[in-house]
Fold each of these.
Amino acid sequence: MSRPERGPNMRIRRTVGRVVLWAVDALALLRPRPVLRTNSLERELASGNSAVLTRLPQNTVVGCNDLAVADLLEASTSTDRHERKHLELSAERWSQRAAMLERMKRSFRKRAALDEASHEFKRDRVPTTPPHP
């Protein structure tokens, strides 16, 4: 039974091994992330609606949900515990942003409906004029 090698060669091998592991982890972070598209988004883009083309995915509910799903998929395939935790937190934040955008959309619709009702009420109200003496 031979003893493990000691000395300067062992230190060099250990250092090279650590550098290689670090490089592999660094390259894993540079992998392109998958981009998911839903059928509704593809249909809107195909319709040629210019407002849809200017909307960024992170500014729509569907886009945020797609980014959350993409992060969860990547986290499920990740072998690095730190990267997996980071991607799971990112997916949670995208889901929270999607919920916030949905609440804002409902709030804007509610305000618009109230404004419309207010204008209709003012328009339909018969002005009362005092009798002229």
Amino acid sequence: MVDFLHTALIKETFLNEINLILRMDNKKLGIILIVVSLIFLVLLGVIRYNIVKAYDKEIDRYLELGQDCSPDPNTCPHELRSQAQIPILIAGALLFGVIALGLYLILFEKSQREIISTLEKQKQVQNKEEKFDILLKGLNEEEKKVIKAVKEQDGITQQTLRFRTDLHKSKLSIILDGLEKKNLIARKDKGKTKEVFIKFSL
């Protein structure tokens, strides 16, 4: 019983943490990511421009002297210029990915509300089921059978309940009396039979 309640508490805590994460203002986070990424893209553009400019001077020196570039890729300014730009291009691609993420977070507002709503509904259903399971632990097998049938169809007639539970009329009457005394169900007259309702709230 303690383990069951402990597990239920852990599940509830986990769902609460997810809720808090999802409640963060994604729009603001998205804007921050986009602004920071754009700043870094400008800086990368400046760095790339300076690298190209520096190697262009070296290439111009070769042209002025009428010489060809060295065949060695480790000394050829064309090759060195291309190699120097690779990390910048990779960083630029990553920043575009971050910008895309920022745009997704900004547009995620509607989906976020739907996810939170679904999580809250799931949490309510889960809590109800857990409370109902705890309640069942205090009942015998026949009482469990009856209370489950009433929960599935609140307002079920005693006659239908008898067929659903496969209990004799007198036995079912005794069980319903017991459940009524425990304040778990309520019965209301309906013609020659009675309707059975769940009395407790989950």
Amino acid sequence: MHRTEPHVMEPAYSDGHGHYYAAVYLWWDDVHAILGRRHRGEPEDDEQLIQWLRDYGAPTWIASAEGWVDEQGWGLIGPRLVGWEAIRWYQQHGGQLGKYADPTEGARDNLTVPEAMEIAREDPSLIHWGPRR
């Protein structure tokens, strides 16, 4: 396998309904450099890219992730950014932490990490990540 230093992006993937997911993304030029040819849309291509990403140090969730392609590249969609995963993502990538409404309190935005951790200890599903607005 041809080894390069690709530009591996870790964007947040949006489903268009206000939910965000961890993601890994490679530009088509990087996909071509890794495969040594253009991506043919075959499962073997995806397996080779996933193996390369594992070797690169990508998150472990890539093994069972759904993929997507667009005009610029190839990507994998990871876990939804809620709970402890949202807090970790915020610490690595920025953005903002929020809290969904619950029976005792309304929704809140712009939580600090200590506030989010305190809420997550009680109910991690209340914490979510979103891009900075």
